[in-house]
Write a structure and sequence with these properties.
elongated, 66% helix, 5 helices, two-stranded antiparallel ribbon, mainly alpha, 119 residues
Length: 119
């Protein structure tokens, strides 16, 4: 399977989560300093979790579960990235609910000038 080397030139183009996971991989195993790489499938699944709709979350979770079985145990960065992607999928509905509650509170405050709501 195609892989992406996490060299300094590439790491500048990734988000904070991938940078952190790469750093943790190097901390855990300093011997792999010149050979830390992430599989294209893993990176694609991670990116899918970052930009998707609620309707596609279950399918993405299925893809992540299949990818878990593909990689050997020594692929630390791939496993950690899949774990992060899975957590993102599972917490996405909660994030959306939190945003909705905040918007509701802001709407009530704007309409009434008060933060007190009666349920």
């Amino acid at each position: 399977m195609p892989e992406v080397w996490t060299c300094p030139q590439f790491i500048q183009l990734t988000d904070d989560d991938i940078v952190s996971l790469t750093a943790l991989t190097l901390i855990v195993n300093p011997a792999c300093q010149n050979s830390v790489r992430i599989n294209h499938l893993t990176l694609t699944l991670y990116l899918m979790t970052k930009c998707q709709s609620m309707s596609s979350l279950p399918q993405t979770l299925n893809y992540i579960e299949v990818a878990w079985r593909i990689y050997p145990v020594d692929r630390t960065l791939d496993h950690w990235t899949l774990e992060l992607a899975e957590r993102e999928v599972l917490t996405s509905p909660l994030k959306i609910m939190h945003r909705a509650v905040l918007l509701l509170i802001l709407f009530v405050y704007a309409a009434t000038g008060s933060c007190q709501m009666e349920l």
